[in-house]
Amino acid sequence: MEKEQYLAKLSSYQKLSVGLRAYISYAMYQTDFMKLEKIALNNTALGHFCYLAKGGGRIFTNDTENEQEITLMFFQANDILPDFKSISRYAKGQFFIQFSEDTTLLAIPVKHGNNMHRLFLESAILSAEINAELLAKVIVMMIGLKTQSADQRLNKLLASFPVVFSQTAVKDVASYLGIHSSTLSAMRNRNYKHTP
Questions:
Q1: Among residues 99, 95, 106, 105, which one has the least CA distance to residue 57?
Q2: Confidence band (pLDDT; 50, 70, 90) for 86?
Q3: Rounded distance, CA 6 to CA 12, Å?
Q4: What is the C-alpha to C-alpha distance for residues 108 and 127, in angstroms, rounded to an integer?
Q5: 55 burial class (0-12, 13-18, 19+ CB within 10 angstroms)?
Q6: What is the C-alpha to C-alpha distance for residues 54 and 37, in angstroms, rounded to an integer?
Q7: Is there a contact between 69 and 63 (Cβ–Cβ < 8 Å)?
Q8: pLDDT per position as a tens digit, 144-162
Q9: Any idea what the Cα angle at residue 146 is, between residues 143 and 151, rounded to 5°?
Q10: What share of the chain is helix, strand, coil (3-state, %, to 5)?
């Protein structure tokens, strides 16, 4: 079941040839992570086309100057993770994932990924499509930080990730929204008072 969902997700970016589909089915592996487990993305070879079959969490970096974590992105089941191993070459600091619940990740091991790119030219196009989607998400988030109120940003997050507060600390959600955690708490209290 999870394998078919994985293949369907990859096919949503680009139709997979019979050969590439068979290679992905053969090479993919599963890794399970426990709730609240953290891993460094820069030093971890998770593989190519990392897919969350179940679970979720957040990607963050450390702001060592202010001694806090900065939440960059939330993810949930059926999402493909960015390739932070490559991104880390161009960004300062280290990236981490913290899993908000028990999580199952499917991916193609690095050694098979390299073979896959040599054998199937379409896999490079697939990578480009996945990266384009992730870049678009980052751009939309940046536009929201510049043009939307904190309430609008919170409502947008809750629309796409309604269980975020049951799985994530308020300070981590506030960091993602670009506001102080006490401001977010006040916003939530105000919204609870207005709900029938």
A1: 99
A2: confident
A3: 10
A4: 12
A5: buried
A6: 15
A7: yes
A8: 889 999 889 998 988 988 8
A9: 95
A10: 50, 20, 25
CB atoms within 10 A of CB 33: 19
For 4, the token pair is 């078919």
Residue with tokens 């105000």: 190
DSSP line for 123-191: HHHHHHHHHHHHHHHHHHHHHHHHHS-HHHHHHHHHHH-TTHHHHS-HHHHHHHHTS-HHHHHHHHHHH
Which tokens hold the place of 145? 């930080």
Query: 3-class DSSP state for residue 51?
Result: strand
CA 96 to CA 41: how far, in whole Å?
5
HSE value, Cβ hemisphere, 13 Å, CA-based, for 46: 25
Per-residue pLDDT reduced to its tens digit, 89-132: 777 778 899 999 999 999 999 888 888 888 999 998 999 999 89
Both tokens assigned to 7: 């293949």
pTM of the model: 0.84
